[in-house]
Give the backbone structure.
Amino acid sequence: MKMTKGKVWKFGADIDTDAILPAAYLNLTEPKSLSEHCFEITHPNFCKNSKKGDFILADTNFGCGSSREHAPVAIKAKGIQCVIASNFARIFFRNAFNIGLPVLECPEAVSAIEEGQEIIVDMQKGEITDVCDNKVYKCEPLPENMLAILNEGGLIQYINANK
């Protein structure tokens, strides 16, 4: 799974699923409709200005709160290539892979890279390159089985393709 160059959107610690997608929109089922409300209350500039191919960098405990899949679905449908955090709430981490949203843990990159900078992510090598200063941050590469799930677009698609 090769990532292309994209712009960074920076978030702090303890971003919960209500901040990602307000509960008022849980009645929506179409991913595109969900994406139109992604971070709309807590980070309206992201909601209005993020583009397909961008990245999210966040501090600790990203995706905490309720276990709803709506949050990673909204992020994926917004076109975010990957969410990189110091660490994730466990249920968000699992839901992200289930729906095919790549996530990586790399506290060093989160601390060093600023909002608006461009990065390139290599999930197989576990590398995040800051294009501005050509600095490479290392993280744990994703195992082949997790990459296979992402390459199929999520767990259901992976299971259907490997029956």
Remarks:
- The chain has one domain: 6-161.
- The first helix runs from residue 17 to 20.
- The mean pLDDT is 94.
